[in-house]
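Incident log, structure service

09:12 report received: a user says their structure output differs between two submissions of the same chain.
09:20 pulled the input from the user's history:
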Amino acid sequence: MSHDPYQAFRFSEFRRFTIGIAIVQVSSAIQGVAIAWEIYERTNNVLTLGMVGLTQAIPMLLFTLPGGYLADVFDRRRLIQISFAGSTVTSLGLAALSYAEANVGAMFVLLFIDASIMRLATAARTAILPLLLPDDAFESGVKWRSTFFQLSTIIGPALGGFVIAWHLQAAYLISAGSTALCVVILAFVRVSEGKRSKSGNPLGQLLEGLRFVRNQSVILGAISMDLFAVFLGGAVYLLPVFARDIINLEPLGLQPEAALGWLLAAPGAGALLMALLLAHRPPMRNAGKNMFLAVAGFGIVTIIFGISRNFWLSLVMLFFTGFFDMISVVVRHTLVQLRTPNEMRGRVSAVSNLFIGSSNELGGFESGVVAKIFNPAISVVSGGVGTILIVVLWAKWFPSLRKLETMSDMESDREA
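09:34 re-ran on a clean worker, output below:
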């Protein structure tokens, strides 16, 4: 049979859910640009950009695993709706604080609350996807969900740069409106919850999810490699510094705010292109080898970005960070969901989200600290070198992941 690249979109519940989440992701990216720009502009301190990452990382550490437990014992759709309703309130609060030019500390408090509310439903947003699609359409669904996510990372930051140049508080109001709209959209998504875990000892059930990941060498290898690569190789939290103070914008006549929007959008553009290429191809072959090569490529282009002072070269390198990262994203998401029973998907998704999500935010804090001690260029370049080292070590420590042929090949869980 010929490959149907749009197989997942044949299912209406998947379409509604994906569109609703994409709207939230675009607006969240707009709000993220506003927060980073406003805090850096008001404090003129690069360390505060790292503090933004830390403020969002702490809720990940505290609430991701409990969120996985909730996703396995409660209605996942309802949990997502409650989370978005809470985020609507916090975005309105950020708009009010920004308009009043309140103390930056108060904005950090609301940012922490917002991250906490969203984190409790992150596992539910991931674990609900297999309930919207049959197994044979799931890889297609992951590819298209990833495509929409990356499209949002292009549209959101690009719009964010222009929105904050027009009216800073509008960014927060847009985010509030989109999460409220998604609550309504989700009311029309019908979900067959399937087999659920029985509520019981939360700690014991969380430990069960951790043990499952530990015993699945391919899943553990994929998640942990992503964790360290993102922790070391992410430059996104320092982009306001590069846009305002490092990259030479004078020949182009670009304002730093607009340059920041394009730089933030570039990784999403690269990821979108790769996601579209993957979505239009049959299920991936040599998945493990492709993942290792992609993460190594991510490290190389990160190093070049850290060295560059040319806007166009920097833009292209950021484009390729997203291009390579998307391969890893598709492999990891597909492995985690297809190899996990439904009654454990919330907890296992929570473990994956904890690894990857905290590495993003803690990586932002690490980048800010290294940039403060040395300089932003050293922070980015050293992270890229560290990413390449991780690839070499993981290729040795996780041979089953390196030899992975297809993402449905269960034989690869037995180490050679």
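09:41 both user submissions now match this output. Likely a transient worker issue. Closing.
09:42 reviewer note: The chain has a mean pLDDT of 84. The CA atoms of residues 229 and 387 lie 5 Å apart.
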